[in-house]
Amino acid sequence: MRVLTGLLRSAQEATAQFTLNIYKLASTVTSVSNPLELQSPNFYGGGDTPLADLLVRISQEPTHTAIIISDMVQSKPGTDSSTLAGALAQLANQRPQMRLLGYRSHFEGEYFPENKTADWHGKIPLSVSQSLPGSGRPFYILVVAPSVEAMIQVDKYLLSRFPPAHTFNPTEPPIIVDKIDLLLDDSKEVPWSIYSRPTRDVTGKRLESTFLLKKANVESRTVLPLGFNVQLKSPIRPGRASQLSWEVTKATWRNNQFSSITEARIPIDGDLETNGQRIRLRLTLQNPEVNSWDIYRVRMRAGGANLDVPAWVTDWNTDDDNVVGNGNRTYQLEPLVEAMTIQISEKIVFCEYILTIGRKG
Length: 361
Known about the structure:
2 domains; four-stranded antiparallel beta sheet; 21 strands
């Protein structure tokens, strides 16, 4: 209640920044004219919580910023995680900014389990204290903003005043590439040399590096081993580092002119180091012609089913909310965050990379 009333008060104080409308989410979405209603226990005695329906409704108002305060339990007959994923996909098409903030609080009251496959479906008297860290009942703030500027405004005037225990941001790049290096193996001669140090372009967003083929192999292709120093905002699933999605185009500089730009494919093999801070990739490249340069433009995405949910989401998740001992967990939080990851995070371009390779005569 402290966070809820505090957010409302902050929004009312920032009237120059926001036009505030309050709605109650239950079986239907209804307008709230008197904010004092939020302090009444009866306000929270509604029926089902159609979270998927709400996301569809938000997608129909693409210029509005929505702040949802909820336990994030999808409770509507006939719906499941696929329904929620579909609603998120519709919302993701609007390309909004999105952020999920997790909190815990004291809870004293009745809880209606959503695990319909359990032997018992009655209500549970629940008393969950936040006297110890991580023991309170989870609740969440889901923010959907139409632009980066709108999210910054919400963060400045509202969210920064109420720091969460955890945050998941599906619309930020899931992987941050800090540096790309040539991996040198002392056990054998490396056919590549660094022609220019990896740099960022003037925008600071695109990485560029150039390598020179010392001598061409008998084979028409040569493996270029690269190390990508990364920060993982979302963990990569085990064994999936080589499955990153690469969208590649290629042009060749020869005889003082560029060839036309064409789509290209670069076979990749690689893995993630155990510390999770470097991805090692081995790129199999067509050898450039003598006295020419091949320029590859790569747009990197995480790709389908390559990202895992953050560890805190797994810790806060339960698949059986009929058990009193799971009162400090959220029923099927993991499928909700997985849906956000699949529909949004895995499709974001997290790195643009210009790779130039040359071969002298």
